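Structure tokens please, single chain.
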Amino acid sequence: MTEQNSLQEILSLFGSTFQNVSQSQKKIPVDVVNEEKYIYVYAETPGVQKDDISIDFYNNKLTIITEKKRAYIPPQVSELKYGRIERGITLPICVTRPETVSSVYKDGVLKIRINKLLEEENKFSIKPRTEEVENDILPLEEI
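Here you go.
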């Protein structure tokens, strides 16, 4: 039996195990801490370069996108995660202003801080009117 055949035999015995491991690790693990003034999000992204991380906000959803690239020839056995991984997190507030968010990436951990107090200043309320106003956007007859 050659060395290559032995390796293929081992892979055939454990192939489904390796496949299950890689499928279950397609999610960025996060911790979310909601304090009075700030929301903190900690995301583990080991082996990802800072330039391969995207942090997006849309209303009350935070999306973290990473891409880990293989820097060498593909191995015969692979348990390391490569490729694009995306994680969406629903926040308790809408984030509308970039200056309320800061982030740092160090030692494989992405740390995001959102200033809730500055975002809350962006909220407003209105009272319904009892009379129509000329040139109103939506006349009462259409409601």
